[in-house]
């Protein structure tokens, strides 16, 4: 499957992030796993340690076997990692982690292993280890005496101690036996000898005896620990499965963060909406935007125009969503849920099995005849047989299969496409060819049958001109007229598509302007409320003074103080900000401390040129500005206000943070800043998500990415203007 969809490299990249080798397909309820994934996606945690597959060890325990200490330690690495996760105190994940209650017996065993998996906490074992350490030091000391010996010096290859077969040795030339009695433990590639002096054999024997005693003690400890673990085999099986589940999730999260990918949960809907999808195999990708809500999609058009890659992209997006794999796509895309994805792509011809291309294709169609809720992709459906016969045959086959499944087809069969186009549940898509530059555009038009452009493609790939002209003469006039008709139809569709794009762009601008005006209005109301509160405070102060006057002075003085207080109250008037201001193109205006010129006006917004930067600004944020008259003409350059390179949004509501960020980016651009830092924190991820969406759409933002771990990590963004 992954070979047919060109996903091998992508899957290898994912599995390299696993803590241990396993199948990339995740087991369990996809909805439940997606819920955990969403909660963990905004968390900061360490990746799990590398762990071996422990199925054999669990089986060994069940059969009353004794595990080695390194096998026991593999279980303890899993235990320790879950202890680490539980100490993170993630309340929204407590339903998962609270189920993992580690038995006290296993926790006691864990105390007897250090970070490297060495057994600790046994007095007799500690004494033996200490004695072995002393003997090793004595042996090494004796070896260095030989290294520094004048008699042996002519025979020494170097003055180093070499480990050979687990033993420390000296490397010498032939003839050494004239000055030293030693045992040969091996030979180097250059013909030199690894020797161990016999004068220190007694020390070596003592060390070997101690090592034997150590092994006996370690075996007894392993036997005891294995007996204790055997009581908890059900728990070990459970935590082993849970570790794999978490491993699947963490690998997907780290891959998504590293490559800025999104997760799409398959939905129980018929409509598929792909927005800016890029196939993982493409380095330079032209994003795919597709809406498909019928049973069959037929893709026709120019050779080498991206038909096969579009088919693979549709199938890959469904396959990746089915297995909860991150992909390069807009998060508001919609991918239906399919029971299986079935690509019929490769040429099935096989000499060994005596099967032709066409027979192999028919065999693959037979396999899906009685399937249900499959997404089937067929590349070059006409492969291997007569075009006219195939058109009739495949029309009937597709009409039967589409009753319970959805199908994507690429074809050059105009007849097959024409026959199927009459069905209401069939949608057409044509690859576009750039006639002017004579090359494919890798874009598609809905609702039409595309021309193959075989002659143009042959010319582009180097077929001689005279051969192509001769082929054109052989081509029937009627067929040429049909191609011209198809070509004109495609051109008309393309023109309509461009107009729709322009209208959608204008509509998006109107929406942005509306949102900007709403934000401005809310800001004005907030300012009014603050001013009102300030004046009320002054009034309350006056009342307070009046009361003090009543208590301390005459009645006449008290009345005077009260009259002054009421006078203050009557002066509390709130001026409503005028949203509509009269401006025209060419007017010089003031925006905060910056001066600019109006280039265009749309509704309640103006396009203003401020120091070479063009910004859409609500008119009610602008003030008329008259240039001072000078004896000599001079260039007036606006002085941008001083702007900090950092913006801290911690503790703000999303709406407030978006307003602050919008204002900050405008001011930063005016101040000439090329790079700024926005700190939004991590929290529940609401603020981070909102800021990310704003930065993606903001016209002043060239690019942005998460800060390095030591400077905020996922809680901060570095923005280039």
TrEMBL record:
SUPFAM superfamilies: P-loop containing nucleoside triphosphate hydrolases, SMR domain-like
Enzyme class: hydrolase
PROSITE patterns the UniProt entry points to: SMR (PS50828)
Spans traversing the lipid bilayer: none
Keyword Nucleotide-binding listed: yes
InterPro entries hit by this protein: DNA_mismatch_repair_MutS_C (IPR000432), DNA_mismatch_repair_MutS_core (IPR007696), MutS (IPR045076), MutS2 (IPR005747), P-loop_NTPase (IPR027417), Smr_dom (IPR002625), Smr_dom_sf (IPR036063)
Residues reported in the UniProt entry to bind ATP: 301-308
Keywords attached to this entry: ATP-binding, Coiled coil, DNA-binding, Endonuclease, Hydrolase, Nuclease, Nucleotide-binding, RNA-binding, rRNA-binding
Domain of life per record: Bacteria
One example GO MF annotation: mismatched DNA binding
Residues covered by the Smr domain: 647-721
Coiled coil spans: 468-556
Quaternary structure (record): Homodimer. Binds to stalled ribosomes, contacting rRNA.
Family stated for the protein in its record: Belongs to the DNA mismatch repair MutS family. MutS2 subfamily.
Protein name: Endonuclease MutS2
Organism: Nautilia profundicola (strain ATCC BAA-1463 / DSM 18972 / AmH)
């Amino acid at each position: 499957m992954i070979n047919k969809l060109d996903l091998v490299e992508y899957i290898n990249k994912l599995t390299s992030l696993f803590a241990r080798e396993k199948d990339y397909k995740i087991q369990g309820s996809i909805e439940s796993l997606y819920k955990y994934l969403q909660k963990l996606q905004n968390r900061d945690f360490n990746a799990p340690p590398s762990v071996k597959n422990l199925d054999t060890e669990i089986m060994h325990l069940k059969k009353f076997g004794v595990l080695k200490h390194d096998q026991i330690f593999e279980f303890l690495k899993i235990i320790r990692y879950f202890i680490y996760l539980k100490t993170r105190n993630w309340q929204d994940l407590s339903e998962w982690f609270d189920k993992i209650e580690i038995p006290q017996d296993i926790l006691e065993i864990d105390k007897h292993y250090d970070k490297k998996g060495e057994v600790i906490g046994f007095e007799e074992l500690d004494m033996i280890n200490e004695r072995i350490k002393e003997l090793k030091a004595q042996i090494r000391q004796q070896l260095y005496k030989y290294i520094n010996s004048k008699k042996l010096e002519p025979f020494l290859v170097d003055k180093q101690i070499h480990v050979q077969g687990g033993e420390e040795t000296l490397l010498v030339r032939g003839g050494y036996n004239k000055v030293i009695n030693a045992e040969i433990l091996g030979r180097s590639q250059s013909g030199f000898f690894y020797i161990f002096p016999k004068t220190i054999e007694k020390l070596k024997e003592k060390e070997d005896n101690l090592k034997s005693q150590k092994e006996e003690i370690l075996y007894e400890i392993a036997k005891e620990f294995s007996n204790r673990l055997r009581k908890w085999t059900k728990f070990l099986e459970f935590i082993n499965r849970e570790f794999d589940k978490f491993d699947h999730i963490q690998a997907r999260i780290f891959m998504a963060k590293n490559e800025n990918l999104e997760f799409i949960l398959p939905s129980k809907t018929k409509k598929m909406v792909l927005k800016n999808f890029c196939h993982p195999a493409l380095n330079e990708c032209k994003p795919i935007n597709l809406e498909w809500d019928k049973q069959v999609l037929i893709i026709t058009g120019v050779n080498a125009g991206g038909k096969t890659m579009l088919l693979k992209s549709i199938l890959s997006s469904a396959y990746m969503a089915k297995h909860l794999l991150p992909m390069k796509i807009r998060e508001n895309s919609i991918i239906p849920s399919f029971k299986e994805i079935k690509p019929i792509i490769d040429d099935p011809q096989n000499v060994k099995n005596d099967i032709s291309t066409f027979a192999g294709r028919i065999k693959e169609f037979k396999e899906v005849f009685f399937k249900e809720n499959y997404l089937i992709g067929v590349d070059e459906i006409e492969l291997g047989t007569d075009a006219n016969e195939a058109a009739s045959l495949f029309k009937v086959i597709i009409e039967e299969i589409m009753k319970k499944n959805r199908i994507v087809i690429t074809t050059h069969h105009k007849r097959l496409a024409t026959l199927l186009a009459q069905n209401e549940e069939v949608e057409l898509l044509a690859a576009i060819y750039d006639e002017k530059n004579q090359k494919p555009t890798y874009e598609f038009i809905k609702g039409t049958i595309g021309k193959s452009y075989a002659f143009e493609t042959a010319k582009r790939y180097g077929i001689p001109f005279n051969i192509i002209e001769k082929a054109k003469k052989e081509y029937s006039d009627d067929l040429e007229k049909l191609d011209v008709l198809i070509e004109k139809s495609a051109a008309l569709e393309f023109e309509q598509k461009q107009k729709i794009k322009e209208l959608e762009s204008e509509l998006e601008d109107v929406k942005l302007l509306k949102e900007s005006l709403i934000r401005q209005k809310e800001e004005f109301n907030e300012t009014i409320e603050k001013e009102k509160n300030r004046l009320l405070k002054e009034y309350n102060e006056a009342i307070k003074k009046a009361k003090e006057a009543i208590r301390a002075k005459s009645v006449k003085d008290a009345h005077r103080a009260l009259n002054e207080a009421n006078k203050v109250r009557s002066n509390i008037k709130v001026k409503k900000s005028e949203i509509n201001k009269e401006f025209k193109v060419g007017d010089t205006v003031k925006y905060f401390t910056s001066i600019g010129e109006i280039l265009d006006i749309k509704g309640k917004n103006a396009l203003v040129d401020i120091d070479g930067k063009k910004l859409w600004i609500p008119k009610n944020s602008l003030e008329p500005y008259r240039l001072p008259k000078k004896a000599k003409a001079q260039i007036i350059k606006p002085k941008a206000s001083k702007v900090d390179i950092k913006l801290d949004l911690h503790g703000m509501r999303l709406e407030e943070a978006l307003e602050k960020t919008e204002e900050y980016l405008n001011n930063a651009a005016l101040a000439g800043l090329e790079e700024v830092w926005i700190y939004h924190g991590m929290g529940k991820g609401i603020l981070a998500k909102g800021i990310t969406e704003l930065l993606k759409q903001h016209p002043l933002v060239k690019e942005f990415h998460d800060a390095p771990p030591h400077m905020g990590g996922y809680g901060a963004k570095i923005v280039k203007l």
